[in-house]
Amino acid sequence: ENNNLLLSTPQRLKCNKVLSIFCFYHFCVSAGAGGWSPIISDRYQWLEVDLGERTKITAVATQGRYGSSDWLTSYLLMFSDTGHNWRQYRQEDSIGSFPGNSNADSVVHYKLQQPAIARFIRLIPLDWNPNGRIGLRLETYGCPYTSDVVSFDGGSSGLLYWLTSGLKRTSRDVVTLKFKALRNSGTLLQAEGQEGLSLSLELERGKLLLLLRKGRTSSTEPQRLVSLGSLLDDQHWHHVAVERRGSHLNLTVDKHTERVQIPAEFSHWSIEQLSLGAVQSEVSQKPVTSKKNFNGCLENLLYNGHNLIELAKNKKQQVTISGNVTFSCAEPVSVAVTFTGPESFLQLPGTTMSSSGGVSIGFQFRTWNKKGLLLSFELPQQGGVAWLYLSEARLQLQIHKSGRALLELSAGASLNDGQWHSVELNSRQGRLTITVDKEERDSSQASPSFPVTVENGSQKCRNLFSVFQGCMRLFTVDNQNLDLIKVQEKQLGNYSNLQIDICGIIDRCSPSPCEHGGPCSQSWTVFHCNCSDSGYSGATCHSSVYEQSCEAYKHNGNTSGHFYIDVDGSGPIKPQLVYCNMTEENTWMVIQHNNTELTRLRPFTGVNQYSIHFDYSSEEEQLLAVIKQSEHCEQELSYHCKMSRLLNTPEGSPLSWWFGGPGAGRVQTYWGGAQPGSQQCACGLQGDCVDLQHYCNCDADRMEWTEDSGLLTHKESLPVRSLVLGDIQRPGSEAVYRVGPLQCHGDRNFWNAAFFDKETSYLHFPTFHGELSADISFLFKTMASSGVFLENLGIKDFIRIELSSSTQVVFSFDVGNGPLEVRVESSFPLNDNRWHRVRAERNVKEASLRLDELPVATQEAPADGHFHLQLNSQLFIGGTASRQKGFRGCIRSLQLNGVTLDLEERAKITPGVQPGCPGHCSSYGSLCQNHGRCVERANGFHCDCNLSAYTGVFCQTEVSASFKSGTSVSYTFKEPYEMSRNSSALPSSIYSDMTLRGENVSLSFRTNQSPALLLYVSSYYREYLAVLINKHGEENTSNLFISFFQIDQNAREDFNLTSDGEFNAIKSLVLGRVHESDDLDADLSRLASLGFTGCLSVVHFNTISPLKEALLRPNSSPVIITGPLAQSNCGSAASANSYSAENTHHLSGEKWRRHLTFNSIRIDSALIGGTKLLYLCIFFTGLYL
């Protein structure tokens, strides 16, 4: 038995030899000639056709074997120029297989999406008729292909073209070529012009770079304009085109194009010389030997339509040839093998015992995986085994015996970069060495106590490590090359599930499928996008994690603050940080610039004009998108002046102006509060300027200070870009200007809605284009149990989102691989007439569906399949083309790939569909807190906080104030009429509107004072109700009308009253110091005169909020304030420290008409501040009728 070397052995796989017959056909088998059928039908067979010369192949046709049940149902196509180094043809860069036949007679014709240029064609059967064998008649279609080729040896060989007037550039420069690289780095082309400006195309680690240099010195660092392509050193032809139009340049590599902007000095740049293959010396203008020189072939090199290779072949005067340049493309034969998965292995013969007692093994590999077994062999003399494998992208060598590691070595780093890496393993004279990439000198050595040899011994394929997926080539054993073609022909070694004479590596990250700058990484089979710092989410970083406006944040329950907004969702505009002001009925988006403060100007000697430029915190495209999306935008523009004129007169030239609008802005000669083009200020429009002969106050040119201020609201003129002030040079002139931040409110997209009242009604829009990535989001509400939200059809492809049942939403589509569905099931009914949000996304990796805040459902896309979504019908919203299963209800804020569809405008002209959709409180009313009332608006809702003790956009902000001992807030209740002087007693009925049958009292307090009066309510009958903090041990037996009482999160307590009565004719409610305390007993009167020191917050007495009235509406409410009272946030949770001696406590109570008794409530003194136990008491006393 021969000694064996084992490569990439899968776990527990027996290496048994498989006998098969390989048939080579170097001619086209035409229809009707019987056809080709190998003896053995398996996937190791192929049919190869030699066309005699390189040909442009445009189509293939297949047919089964004549008069039989033998035909193929699917197959692969390979192409090659030399009969080696095959390349698999792929449709859409993903589909590798072609559909075959369904019988032996019909012809299946397939037109190649991109013509293939090759001399050899190889067809590999994948599947065939299960009741027959492999059988095939094949025809190819194409046309002759001619080309001019030049090759460079990577040394000093090169071409230099001096561009004469006949070759000088026209209105644009275009360079096209094809190249085949034998080395992964080198300069293909360099174009030089005046003043040392140059552009170069350079191959670097298999990627093509377009570089720009300024200056002729080699020390000048080049500027990288763009990088395209990957794995371009695969010894296959690649197409390149460089086109320059003015200041823009397009670079195309194969099918992918990038557009870049070049510096302004290149817009009038003229190319003087072109160098190919070798870097030119700046001194001698001769090629120099360098690793930067290109090793490979160029084909059909054209500059502005001129064939430069033909000029060189004809030895034209303007061409200089240096070094070993040939006009053919000879390439070395290098047979690679591809390990595709767990079942792949290659078993090669080893060596016999050499005189030196050592071993030498070498090979090259490339992969994307960090882990995988590369090679293993047994050590029969030691009874051990050697493993050479990748671990965390480093090369590791382990020698094991009886489960114990006798030796470990490691070398290399980042070996999963897709590049070819060489490995040498040598054992000579007692020293073991592994070397990775010899030129990099990365090696590791050891001196084992035993010889490392590969000798006779039982060999079994086993693997204790991850399987290797990648390519290998250039195998040597004891410096002898191993012929892998013999392995393929079963003359040498053994193998299984290998692709021989092809490296099937694919760069799934070139071009990157990751959007919005998300870094792409990959393994052999999948790619991964890291979206953590991009502001986007999903498999390809497609969908934004931010809302599109402040309005959307508000309806998620947020309050004022800084937020990132993404105005176009998944579109190209980046997220921006803005301030969202939600304290008013309108939600304002505030975008700052570099100078929003009042700025004083004084006369400048020799300066006639003063110019100010404003830089905004948002980028240009972000600003314009915000303005377009908003319903209203404004910006304050003010000018305070003293002998400094502003606009002069409408008939004269303006002395000052500003620029506003897109880009640098257009000149604007009107001021804030006036109309565009009027050359007026606000006072001129209103007719109340200080001098009626002028249209601006400042144009009166007075010695006194005056001002012209107002809001700019014309959206086409916003934002203000710069300001030019022209009358500041005179002695005595002074001015102060201010340009406020840009403020916008209203979201045209968020509330854009349509109501579908019939199942047969729908809206239609142009075809949706989401070939590679598509995201769809909208809100819906309905009372129907099913209906189609959206549908777009193609010839075979389609995309659809529907409510399939009252609890399920389905996202379905077909891109050519068969229908796929993603479903989300809800535990609650969706036809509850409340808004529900749907977000669907489909990309090349997966499809996802999200409903409200339920977990996301996903469906992976096939690894090898179609991925272009090709639609051609109209897009139907709320229905289908068949008018069946239509949707009844409302659809709102419908966006496709970040673009909002204007449902309302289309609904206005469509029968059965109404624009807009009212009834938002059913969905958003719960956002109104603390007794706030939800009020419907045409676009959205508003929280009315009039009946709440709180304020804010959702009635969630506590109204708090700091009290001093002399502070008093007295709220006077409305008196029904003036009491008669002679009345000694009045029937209680005259106070019926002020007679309370129940009290609701709530407040929050924070104090160190004890005892203290928190709240005092008096009546015209000398009755009163008091809430106070009483010291522990001081008993009081006053009667109460409170049935339960709760402090903070303590348990609710119930109490009994001793009598049944009513609190009649309420007169006033006092917080803090009580000035009128004649009706109180001595102790309570003394306590009332001390006042309250601390914080009171959210005081609520039945429907009255006295503290809120005093702080927010002191001039329009029946409130009298004496002493210092300052609004603060002392009552908020953020201002309270649970470990401090003073904290905020919440108190609430309610009266029920039943007999209750109460003395006091005991609470821990630590809650109030102090060292003693305290009692919180509520007193009621007075005359009962």
Distance between the termini: 121 Å
Question: What is the percent of helical residues?
Answer: under 10%
How many whole angstroms does the radius of gyration measure?
Answer: 42 Å
Low-confidence segments: 1-32, 455-459, 977-995, 1032-1059, 1136-1144, 1148-1185
Q: What summary fits the major beta sheet?
A: 8 strands, antiparallel
What's the count of strands?
83
Question: What would you note in describing this structure?
Answer:
With 1185 residues, this protein is mainly beta. Strands 22, 24, 29, 30, 31, 32, 33 and 35 form an 8-stranded antiparallel sheet that branches. Strands 40, 41, 42, 43, 45, 48, 50 and 51 form an 8-stranded antiparallel sheet that branches. Strands 52, 54, 59, 60, 61, 63, 64 and 65 form an 8-stranded antiparallel sheet that branches. The longest helix is centred in the middle third of the chain and has 10 residues, at 620-629. 42% of the residues are buried. One of its GO terms (cellular component) is membrane. Residues 505-542, 918-956 form the EGF-like domain. It comes from Astatotilapia calliptera (Eastern happy). Residues 36-143 form the F5/8 type C domain. Keywords: Disulfide bond, EGF-like domain, Membrane, Repeat, Signal, Transmembrane, Transmembrane helix.
